[in-house]
Amino acid sequence: MPTVEDICSAMQSIAPLELAAEWDNVGLLLGESAQSVTRLMTTLTLSTTTVQEAIDRSASMVIAHHPLPFRPLKTITDASYYGGLVWKLASRSIAVYSPHTAWDSAKAGINQQLAELLGLQAIAPLEPTSIEGLEGCGTGRFGVVREDVHLAGFCEQVAAGIPDARTRTVDAGKKIRKVAIACGSGGSFLSAARRAGCDTLLTGEATYHDCLEAQAAGVNLVLVGHHASERFSLEVLARRLSGQFSDVECWASANEFDPVQAVRSASTS
Ligand SMILES: [Zn+2]
């Protein structure tokens, strides 16, 4: 039976922690290295819903893309949202591991998977890492589309390729040929996208001011939603770990949902 430490080692091969951003909080964030792992859940984010699922389905460990805790906690009590979640997990001996920006930047990580889902060619990191032994890894990705396409046509490909994409766009008037990819909140990748000569940046979400800047810079923005830009990769991760650890039951959270929803008409008949 693998231990928490064995799962951490497997995760280190999949998403080396050296790739994580300096500001990030990654690795084993909660738990005991020697504890056995029989049931492992992956999730994008630990929330009231996903923590409850981990408890109800007796998970021994959770791999949560977004770190919990992220910022230091002075108290671990249910008086705060995050303190309450950490307490629930700790009191049920559920370990938590977060790969976050290491998984974004890994060789077969989220950005690479997104670029492949969109069928991009000649995929390379937007900002390659200089860490020895980790060639081919780095933040973001960019690549070229098989055939130049207008924004509306590209959005159809996005809808077909990325599950649950809720696409919004900033049309900078360019045909789409070279696309930069940054999962999550990737507005800050605009300058890297421009340096790579991209006409389009696809990300989860961006601020209003990022949108104005993109338009002024002549770079189309394609915003698919933070959740949609990352969540699919936790299904991939669960399958990968399941293949590696045949005696562990691995699953991607079934109850997780995108908290951002479009307004539904109140007058449905
Ligand atoms: Zn994210």
Plain-language structure description:
The protein has 269 residues and is of the alpha/beta class. The strands form 3 sheets. A 6-stranded mixed sheet has the order 5-8-10-11-12-9. The chain has a 5-stranded mixed sheet with strand order 1-4-3-2-13. It has helices at residues 4-14, 48-56, 81-91, 100-105, 110-117, 151-161, 190-195, 208-217, 226-230, 232-244; strands spanning 27-30, 39-43, 61-64, 95-98, 121-124, 127-128, 138-139, 141-149, 168-170, 176-185, 200-205, 220-223, 249-252. The protein has 2 domains: 4-102, NIF3 (NGG1p interacting factor 3)-like (Udp-n-acetylmuramoylalanyl-d-glutamate--2,6- Diaminopimelate Ligase, Chain: A, domain 1); 107-229, Udp-n-acetylmuramoylalanyl-d-glutamate--2,6- Diaminopimelate Ligase, Chain: A, domain 1, CATH 3.40.1390. The model has no long low-confidence stretch (mean pLDDT 96). Bound molecules: zinc ion.
* Count of helical stretches: 10
Q: In this structure, how is the largest beta sheet organized? A: 6 strands, mixed
In spatial order, strands of the major sheet run 5-8-10-11-12-9
Mean pLDDT over all positions = 96
List the secondary-structure elements in sequence, H or E.
HEEHEHEHHEEEEHEEHEHEHHE
Cα distance spanning the termini = 54 Å
The named CATH superfamily of the largest domain: NIF3 (NGG1p interacting factor 3)-like
Structural class: alpha/beta
Q: Specify Rg, calculated over alpha carbons.
A: 19 Å
* Content of β-strand: 15-25%
Looking at the chains present, what oligomeric state does this protein adopt? Answer: single chain
Give the number of DSSP strands. Answer: 13
